Every structure is written in structure tokens, then in C-alpha cells.
UniProtKB/TrEMBL annotation, chain A:
It comes from Marivivens donghaensis. Belongs to the CcmC/CycZ/HelC family. This is Heme exporter protein C. Residues 5-183 form the Cytochrome c assembly protein domain. The lineage of its organism: Bacteria, Pseudomonadati, Pseudomonadota, Alphaproteobacteria, Rhodobacterales. Pfam families: Cytochrom_C_asm. It is found in: Cell inner membrane; Membrane. The gene is ccsA. The chain crosses the membrane at residues 20-41, 61-81, 93-115, 127-147, 159-179, 199-221. Required for the export of heme to the periplasm for the biogenesis of c-type cytochromes. It comes from the Bacteria.
TrEMBL record, chain B:
This is Heme exporter protein B. It is found in: Cell inner membrane. Required for the export of heme to the periplasm for the biogenesis of c-type cytochromes. It is a multi-pass membrane protein. The chain crosses the membrane at residues 12-35, 47-64, 96-117, 123-150, 157-178, 190-213. Pfam families: CcmB. InterPro entries: Cyt_c_biogenesis_CcmB, Cyt_c_CcmB_bac. PANTHER family: CYTOCHROME C BIOGENESIS B-RELATED, HEME EXPORTER PROTEIN B. The keyword Cell inner membrane applies. It comes from Marivivens donghaensis. Keywords: Cell inner membrane, Cell membrane, Cytochrome c-type biogenesis, Membrane, Transmembrane, Transmembrane helix, Transport. Belongs to the CcmB/CycW/HelB family. The gene is ccmB.
């Protein structure tokens, strides 16, 4: 029993189809609990007022924006090394979700920035890195849609994803060098004591879990859709040949 | 490799269009900027290094799709792939040829255009050096983008969408070096980083370009 068994599209679909409703259900439940708790039942933060509550959306989406790219990076590597089609399709499926998460993080960040920093937009390292990440998503999706042959598209986008990852990291440090930030340092970390009151911490963790599972559910659904599309294409081609 | 380089250079110079076009575009962008922001010296002087870098980057972009497209169409790229020269080496050679026909003329012309933007006198040496160090990176990154999009009918627009985000670090360090030079600050760090990007890109990206070319030629 190895994880590579799931590289078989049939096995992948058979395994994931029953799981998807559960993942999606838990995701929605966690998001509902996290967001309702966060938005309605947390105290207003000192100095920030109610504006702090948008962070219950901002932080999880930002987290998923980066993790989605990382997932695409791993999936691209698997495609290039082991040539499992499911892996390439999963990377393709994740890109629009990651791009949406990035966009939501940018927009909620702007809405948060207006009352607290007094500006919608500031050319500040983290904001700029996210904008660049969004451009990388756009380029990746554009390359997928531009190439007709599926395997060629998978190969080229995987190479782009690997090179893009290096340059995205490089840009992040370049941008940090170029301008100093307004952004607070990370509040959540595994090794340090958290600087955050438990009343905010629990709902944010639940919201993050919810967004993470939502991402997983959406990727699984979209990957299954891609596999079905691929099958439909194959059927059509076969029909045309026999006609 | 040298034969390929000479052939590419000869084609670029004799076929016309490609060679002078980038320079002319560079000139036009620089001329347009004062129309946009006003002829005031106090406005132009601080933005001159950045504008020159962005304009150089855009003119580099103009001729990128020519790196592989013409050879792909007439089949010489397929011929190259079967020759003993690996495609990785071919893509380095083609990037060097691209640099010699666009990056190098841009570097030489940039100080003259700096005059038009009232750039500070101290900054000229920094501008030339940073462009000389940075434009090779633009060519080799661009060659990677061109290799990805070579098989596409209308790859030009997509090429810019793919390549421009990759240009961010080069632009940041290149423009920062000139800005620091203009303000009399120490510019060693951005120069070192810029050189790092150029050499790193030359060492690693040819493998990605070679892989992309091989997929497109399949």
C-alpha cells in the first residue's frame, strides 16, 4: 500500500468522491464557527476597534494563498519526476483557488489598512510580495489555457512553477530590501509564545482550519472535474476516429 | 557555440528591424515620460534611474520572442536539437546573442538618455555599471520565457505576462543601485545582489529553458 496507488485516476476518484462531502462539510462548519465566533463574539481589540475582525478572513486566506502555491510546487515536481497525470491536474486545479485566495487576502488587507494605517495601499514588502504572487498565478493559469496539448501544457507549466517559485522567493527578499514595512511581524509561530489573547486565538485557528479544508475540498472537486473532462475529450476523440 | 553566436548576431544585424527597434523604443519611452509627468527638473531628477531601468527592461522584452520563434518556424531549432550541442548550451548562446544586440546597446545609450531626464552627474557610472550587470539577467530570463512560449501562435502577450514578474528582483536591485549611487550612498549591496542574480540565472535557467525547448520540439 503506497501513496502512489492514488496516482491512478480511477482509484483517485473512487477514493476521493466519498470523502469530498465530508471534507467540504467540516470545512464549512469550521468556517461558520470560526467566522461567527470571530465576528460576533470576540471583544473589540484595544486601539483597533471592530476593524480587527476582518483579520479572521484575512489571515486564513493569506495563509492558503501561499500554501496553494507550495502545493502546486510539490505537485509539479511529482509530475516532472513520476509523470502521474493526477498530480499535474491537481496543480492545475489549485491555481485558480490560490489566485482567488490571494485576491481576497489583498482586498481584505486593503479594507483593514484603510482605518488602521490610513491608506488602502502601501508599497510595503508583504503587500508587494502578495501582489507579485498574484501575478505569478495569473501567468501560470494563462500558460495552461494557452497550450492545447495536455501533456505539453502540464510539462511547461510545471517548469514555470518551479522557476516561478525560486523567483517568487527571490522577489520576496528583494522587496524586503527595497522598502521597510508597516506590517506587523507574524503573530502566530510554532516556537514562540503567542502574543495573542486566547479569545482571538481559538476562533482564528478554527477559521484557518476551515479555510484549509475548504481549499482541500475545492482542489479535490476540481481535480475530479479535470479528470472527467480529460475522459470526455478522449471519448470524443475515439468517436471521431471511428466515425 | 561560437558559430551559432555569430550566425545569430549576423541575422539580427542584417535582417533589420529587430536590432534598432529596441533602442528606438527605449528612446521613445524616455521622451514620453516628461510629457507624462511634466518637464520640472525637481520631478524628473529623482525618478530618472527608475525610469531608465523600467524603459530598458521593456525594450528588452520587445525582442524576446525573436530569440527562438524564427528558428522554430523554419526548422533550424529542430536541427539544433539533433546537433551535438545540447539545447541548454544553445539557449545560453542565444541569450548572449540577444544581450549583445539589445542589452549592450541599451547600456551604452542609457547615459545619453539620462541627460534628457536631468539625472544627477554622480549616477552615470552607477547606471552604466548596473545595466551592464543586470541586462544579461534580463536576456537569460527572457530566453526561458521565450522557450516556454515558442510553440504558441500568439505567444507575445503571454510571454510578457510570464516574464515580467520574473524581472522583479533584477529591477529592484538594479534601480536601487543607481538610486543609492545618485544619493551618494554605498551601493555595494545592490550591486552584489544584482551580480548574484545574473550569475545564478546564467547557471540555472538554461536547464529550464532546455527542458522547455525539448517539450516544445517533441
Amino acid at each position: 500500500m503506497s501513496i502512489w496507488e492514488y496516482a491512478n485516476p480511477k482509484k483517485f476518484m473512487a477514493t476521493t468522491t466519498p470523502i469530498i462531502p465530508w471534507v467540504l462539510g467540516i470545512a464549512l462548519a469550521a468556517m461558520f464557527v470560526g467566522l461567527v465566533w470571530g465576528l460576533l463574539f470576540t471583544p473589540d481589540a484595544e486601539n483597533f476597534g471592530a476593524s480587527v475582525k476582518i483579520l479572521f478572513v484575512h489571515v486564513p486566506t493569506a495563509l492558503m494563498a501561499i500554501n496553494a502555491w507550495f502545493m502546486m510546487f510539490v505537485a509539479s515536481l511529482i509530475w516532472l519526476i513520476r509523470r502521474h497525470h493526477v498530480s499535474a491536474l491537481a496543480a492545475k486545479a489549485a491555481a485558480p483557488i490560490g489566485a482567488t485566495m490571494t485576491l481576497i487576502a489583498l482586498i481584505t488587507g486593503a479594507i483593514w489598512g484603510q482605518p488602521t494605517w490610513g491608506t488602502w495601499w502601501q508599497w510595503e514588502p508583504r503587500l508587494t510580495s502578495f501582489l507579485i504572487l498574484f501575478l505569478f498565478y495569473l501567468g501560470y493559469m494563462a500558460l495552461w489555457s494557452a497550450i492545447e496539448d495536455n501533456d505539453t501544457a502540464a510539462d511547461l507549466t510545471s517548469v514555470l512553477c518551479l522557476v516561478g517559485s525560486i523567483f517568487a522567493l527571490l522577489s520576496r527578499y528583494a522587496v524586503r530590501f527595497w522598502s521597510n514595512g508597516l506590517h506587523q511581524d507574524s503573530t502566530f509561530s510554532a516556537d514562540k509564545e503567542t502574543h495573542i489573547d486566547p479569545s482571538f486565538w481559538y476562533p482564528s485557528v478554527i477559521a484557518m482550519l476551515g479555510f484549509g479544508l475548504l481549499f482541500l475540498a475545492l482542489v479535490l472537486i476540481r481535480t475530479n472535474t479535470e479528470i472527467r473532462l480529460r475522459r470526455a475529450d478522449a471519448l470524443e476523440a475515439r468517436q471521431r476516429r471511428s466515425a | 557555440m561560437i558559430a551559432l553566436l555569430l550566425r545569430d548576431l549576423r541575422l539580427a544585424v542584417r535582417a533589420g528591424g529587430g536590432f534598432g527597434l529596441g533602442l528606438a523604443f527605449f528612446l521613445i519611452v524616455i521622451v514620453l515620460v516628461p510629457f507624462g509627468v511634466g518637464p520640472d527638473k525637481t520631478v524628473l531628477e529623482p525618478i530618472a534611474p527608475g525610469i531608465l531601468w523600467v524603459a530598458a527592461l521593456l525594450s528588452c522584452l520587445l525582442s524576446l520572442d525573436r530569440i527562438f520563434a524564427l528558428d522554430f518556424e523554419d526548422g533550424s531549432l529542430a536541427l539544433l536539437a539533433t546537433s551535438p550541442l545540447p539545447l541548454e548550451a544553445a539557449s545560453v548562446t542565444k541569450a548572449v546573442a540577444h544581450w549583445l544586440t539589445t542589452g549592450l546597446p541599451l547600456t551604452i545609450a542609457a547615459p545619453a538618455l539620462g541627460v534628457l531626464l536631468h539625472m544627477k552627474t554622480d549616477a552615470y557610472a552607477y547606471l552604466t555599471l548596473s545595466l551592464a550587470l543586470g541586462t544579461p539577467a534580463l536576456s537569460i530570463i527572457g530566453a526561458f520565457g521565450a522557450a516556454l512560449t515558442v510553440g504558441l501562435k500568439r505567444g507575445g502577450l503571454l510571454l510578457s505576462l510570464l516574464v515580467l514578474p520574473l524581472y522583479v528582483p533584477t529591477l529592484v536591485f538594479g534601480a536601487e543601485a543607481v538610486r543609492r549611487g545618485a544619493e551618494g550612498m554605498d551601493a555595494t549591496t545592490p550591486f552584489v545582489m544584482l551580480a548574484g542574480i545574473t550569475f545564478g540565472a546564467f547557471a540555472l535557467l538554461p536547464f529550464a529553458s532546455g527542458a522547455a525547448l525539448r517539450v516544445n520540439l517533441k
